[in-house]
Amino acid sequence: MSAAGEARRAELADNLARVRAAIGAGCAEAGRDPGEVTLVAVTKTYPASDVCHLVALGVTDVGENRDQEAAPKAAEAAAAGAAPRWHFVGQLQRNKCASVVGYADAVHSVDSVRLAEALGRAAGQRRDADLDVFVQISLDGDPTRGGAVAPPAYVPGGPVPEPDHDLERVAAAVAAGPRLRLRGVMAVAPLGWQPARAFTLLADIAARLRVGYPTATAISAGMSGDLRDALAHGATHVRIGGALLGNRPPLR
Ligand SMILES: *Cc1c(COP(=O)(O)O)cnc(C)c1O
């Protein structure tokens, strides 16, 4: 490895140790087993060589938010011998489904019936193994920034979702999709909300969804800035970018 490669690997090793320690501390505070939390290293804007370093350091799951960037990066990493599980975490256009099902193991951002159907069609045509699907939830009920909306049966007094973004309908479409497995829910804390409020609501919605869909046990929540709160409220998948790959303020 080049000297620059060695230095980058050492930097990532340091960051990874800090992130793992923060996950350990958050789990300890919440009385949880860190073994039930998957670290998804969000490598968007960082090169395939960083994916290779992270995999060499023991990272098993990597996240990306744009297909145009993720598809070639996954191919380049694979050619270099790094084959992590790839999680697609960004807003997904229906015309990208065919590409994404080619390399992703999980999609965290399914938020409409039409997208679930398109993803199911693509997965049915192109995959032998199930694709894990998280339904992305809009916790403030505004789907314009992405997200399905939980109906009032889930959130008493909450907004009535339009049909295409109704969580119940989206979940049913995923469950019916060939080669799709409804794995759980995902959310980003809305701007201006306390993370604890956001992740409490997400945990309530996840529990309600699990009544009808017992496989939907996962909660994808928590980024570099709100990891602790997410772990306190049951996150099973934390999506960490900046704290792992870049220069970021300390984790909280
Ligand atoms: C970028 C991104 C992350 C990681 O965010 P950081 O603040 O860099 O840790 C997590 N989730 C999604 C959907 C993202 O786009």
Automatic annotation (TrEMBL):
Keyword Transcription regulation annotated: no
Keyword set includes Transmembrane helix: no
N6-(pyridoxal phosphate)lysine sites (modified residues): K44
Annotated protein name in UniProt: Pyridoxal phosphate homeostasis protein
CDD domains linked: PLPDE_III_YBL036c_like
Family statement: Belongs to the pyridoxal phosphate-binding protein YggS/PROSC family.
Originating organism: Luedemannella flava
SUPFAM superfamilies: PLP-binding barrel
